[in-house]
């Protein structure tokens, strides 16, 4: 993606690609603020990435629009752009997985997938309790471990009727293999659920063509507890 560029231009292009990878969807202004360069300078690189088929621009959704005026374009990597960042051993890994299935069946593939994610998360302490803060701390530990394994992972607290944390993996070093062997994703979801001590839901997957692997971790226990306490207090007040 930075082929043919050298010096500062090459470093800037690589930094922009890294932000596109980690953010999933981002504006030229946001990239400029993150890198300390002008939006015009950013757009020059973005235009080149779009022209090369490595990135695409889309209008911002209503909830992403800040203030009035024309919605800013949001940029993200295309599947072709992501493919250029993937490891070059996908074909070999897929062939090895097929051989494993032939020799040991589906159970052997499932066992391998589970051992792999268990190794990645081996140093992550399980949530100490079902308290929201404990689950959030464990989710951060999971994100850090996944990032060290090459998944460029972040966490975001989300509100709404059911509060939660979204664990977003902006890169997957095994996405091409996972397209054929979803056991890798299934084992990952199960392992994350066990570390956090709560049910988690996979909302999106790079292997399915999404821009990130997004896992939703519900944080409803504290909310429900507060609601129950409020209802009990109201009942006591009404009977007084």
How does this model look, in words?
- With 240 residues, the chain is α+β, with helices and mostly antiparallel strands.
- The protein has 2 domains: 7-83, Arc Repressor Mutant, subunit A (Orthogonal Bundle); 90-225, Muramoyl-pentapeptide Carboxypeptidase, domain 2, CATH 3.30.1380.
- Helices cover 54% and strands 13% of the residues.
- It contains 9 helices and 6 strands.
- The chain has helices at residues 7-23, 28-35, 39-51, 79-83, 90-120, 132-148, 175-180, 183-196, 221-239; strands at 55-59, 73-77, 153-158, 164-169, 201-204, 213-218.
- The strands form 2 sheets. A 4-stranded antiparallel sheet has the order 3-4-6-5, covered by helices on one side. A two-stranded antiparallel sheet has the order 1-2.
- A hairpin with a 5-residue loop joins β3 and β4.
- The protein starts with 6 loop residues before the first helix and ends with a helix.
CATH topology of the largest domain: Muramoyl-pentapeptide Carboxypeptidase, domain 2
Please state the overall shape, judged from the principal axes of the Cα atoms. Answer: globular
**Strand ordering within the main sheet:** 3-4-6-5
Mean pLDDT: 84
Q: Which regions are unreliable across 5 or more consecutive residues at pLDDT < 50?
A: none
Total tally of structural domains: 2
Listing every helix as H and every strand as E from the N terminus to the C terminus, the arrangement reads HHHEEHHHEEHHEEH
Beta-strand content? 5-15%
- Estimated radius of gyration: 21 Å
Give me the count of strands: 6
Quaternary assembly: single chain
| Largest sheet, strands/sense/barrel | 4 strands, antiparallel
User: How many helices?
Assistant: 9
CATH classification, class level of the largest domain: Alpha Beta
CATH hierarchy: architecture of the largest domain: 2-Layer Sandwich
Helix % is 40-55%
| Structural class by SSE content | alpha+beta
The span between the termini is 71 Å
């Amino acid at each position: 993606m930075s082929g043919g560029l050298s010096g500062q231009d090459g470093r800037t292009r690589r930094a922009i690609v890294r932000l596109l990878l980690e953010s999933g969807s981002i504006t030229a202004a946001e990239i400029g603020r993150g890198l300390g360069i002008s939006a015009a300078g950013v757009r020059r690189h973005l235009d080149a990435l779009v022209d090369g088929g490595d990135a695409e621009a889309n209008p911002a959704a209503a909830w992403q629009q800040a203030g009035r005026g024309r919605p800013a374009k949001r940029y993200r990597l295309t599947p072709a752009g992501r493919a250029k960042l993937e490891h070059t051993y996908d074909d070999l890994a897929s062939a090895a997985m097929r051989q494993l299935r032939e020799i040991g069946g589906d159970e052997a593939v499932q066992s391998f997938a589970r051992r792999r994610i268990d190794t990645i998360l081996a140093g992550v302490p399980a949530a100490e309790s079902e308290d929201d803060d404990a689950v959030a701390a464990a989710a951060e530990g999971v994100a850090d471990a996944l990032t060290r394994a090459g998944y460029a992972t972040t966490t975001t607290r989300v509100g709404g009727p059911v509060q939660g944390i979204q664990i977003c993996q902006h890169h997957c070093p095994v996405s091409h293999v996972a397209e054929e062997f979803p056991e890798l994703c299934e084992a990952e979801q199960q392992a994350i659920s066990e570390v956090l001590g709560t049910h988690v839901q996979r909302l999106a997957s790079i292997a399915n063509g999404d821009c990130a692997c997004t896992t939703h971790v519900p944080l409803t226990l504290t909310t429900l507890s507060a609601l129950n306490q409020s209802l009990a207090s109201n009942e006591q007040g009404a009977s007084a």
